[in-house]
Amino acid sequence: MVSLDHERRYGILDAERELIAAILEDNRVYRAVCHLLVPDHFLSPDHQRQFAAIARAIERGRPVDRCLAIEGRAFETGRPLIGFPPIDPLDHALMIYGSFLGRTAIGAATPDCSLDGAALS
């Protein structure tokens, strides 16, 4: 069971990174979440570009993996892509979408206005 402290520290950016990594590991993950997410739902502009590049490739029938991701311009973040433990893609997609809806509701749709990581009491 995950502790409450861990849940408070767990940020939406982590969920975005983990979902993208999961899609790169298994393209079927994209099919599980593509009906729910679009690039604008991601908080990070890097993640928006990455998800859009993945979506374009997969929708055109081109498999996406870490090699393609490293070659693609959307993945030039200066940080290496690392593996993550297995995740539930729908949980992560719902977390990302819920965060987007929350940011939109309070008018904080840009990363500069994000409350990501803030402890609300």
From TrEMBL:
Boundaries of every DNA helicase DnaB-like N-terminal domain copy: 13-66
The keyword DNA-binding is annotated on this UniProt entry: yes
GO cellular component, one term: primosome complex
Pfam families: DnaB
InterPro entries: DNA_heli_DnaB-like_N_sf (IPR036185), DNA_helicase_DnaB-like_N (IPR007693), DNA_helicase_N/primase_C (IPR016136)
Any one biological process term the GO annotation gives: DNA replication, synthesis of primer
SUPFAM superfamilies from the UniProt entry: N-terminal domain of DnaB helicase (SSF48024)
Entry keywords, A to Z: DNA replication, DNA-binding, Primosome
GO terms assigned for molecular function: ATP binding; DNA binding; DNA helicase activity
Protein name: DNA helicase DnaB-like N-terminal domain-containing protein
